[in-house]
Amino acid sequence: AESPRIIPLGPKTKMVPLSLENWVPRPPMTPLSATGRYVRVEPLNMDSDVPLLWDALGGNDGTLNELVKWWGWKDLESQDDLKGLLEMIEEPEGCCVNVFRLLATNNDGNDDDVEMTVAGMASYIATNADNGVTEVGFVAHGPAMQRTRASTEAHYLLAKHALEDCGYRRLEWKCDKNNGPSNRAAQRYGYSYEGSFRNHRVTAKKKNRDTCWYSMIDSEWSRRKERLDGWLDPSNFDENGLQVQKIEAFGS
User: Fold this and answer.
1) What does the chain look like in DSSP terms, one character per residue?
2) Taking every pair of C-alpha atoms in the chain, what is the biggest distance, in angstroms?
């Protein structure tokens, strides 16, 4: 597996911690409801969204367990298994599942004609409201949103909600050291690599997990936001939907 790289912070990106003089514990995290240009992020509706997620993530064609294998969970054999896992994620206070819906408009661009297709999910987990810390975890992007603007925008909206709207100080991302796509995604979205916990967990399938830790903190958010905004701007994509500049061109 690729070793995560530490993104250097030069003089222009050195961050000064925000004062804690007026700090008060934050309310527990709540699900996000937000619409971007390419995706809508919504709270999970257990009754209506589980069948849609099951299909979007590959439950109906037998590819779901390969897609979510890095969750470290036992195989999901049915929609009821998926529902049980989602209920477990949401059980602790301040932990919640968000559903990603792809946006598609008719050629006339009428917003009233917006169509929304469930294509993935991510959750706020391990929330510590007293210290203003939460984590984005149990992430799954179905084939329809992999390597798209929608996937980047979904995580932009999740970070904005935690660090800006809810006033949290620290947003975490943790993943298996061997999960190359998740390690690369964390860095692409603007999280900083902090190190690895060796022999951190024994998974449900009795395998070892070394966990890579990443974070994004409040004093960094304005620069991360500017970077993501720049890449997501429609002017950065040509008539074929291909990026004009890579995200690295918009800063660290």
Assistant:
1) -PPP-PPP--GGG--PPPP-TT--PPPPP----EE-SSEEEEE--HHHHHHHHHHHTTTTTT-HHHHTGGG-PPPP-SHHHHHHHHHHHHSSTT-EEEEEEEEE--TT--GGG-EEEEEEEEEEEEEETTTTEEEEEEEEE-GGGTTSHHHHHHHHHHHHIIIIIS--SEEEEEEETT-HHHHHHHHHHTPEEEEEEEEEEE-TTS-EEEEEEEEEEGGGHHHHHHHHHHHHSGGGB-TTS-BSS-GGGG--
2) 54
Half-sphere exposure at residue 27, Cβ-oriented, CA atoms within 13 angstroms: 6
| pLDDT band, residue 113 (cuts 50/70/90) | very low
122-170 confidence digits (pLDDT tens): 999 999 999 999 999 999 999 999 999 999 999 999 999 999 999 999 9
> Which residues 6+ apart lie within 8 Å of 108 measured at CB?
none
Q: What are the CA-CA distances from residue 148 to residues 70, 102, 119, 167, 201 (Å)?
A: 21, 10, 11, 28, 31
Distance of alpha carbon 221 from alpha carbon 217, whole angstroms:
6
Phi and psi, residue 47, nearest 5°: -75, -45
Look at the block and give the residue holding tokens 């409201």.
Answer: 129
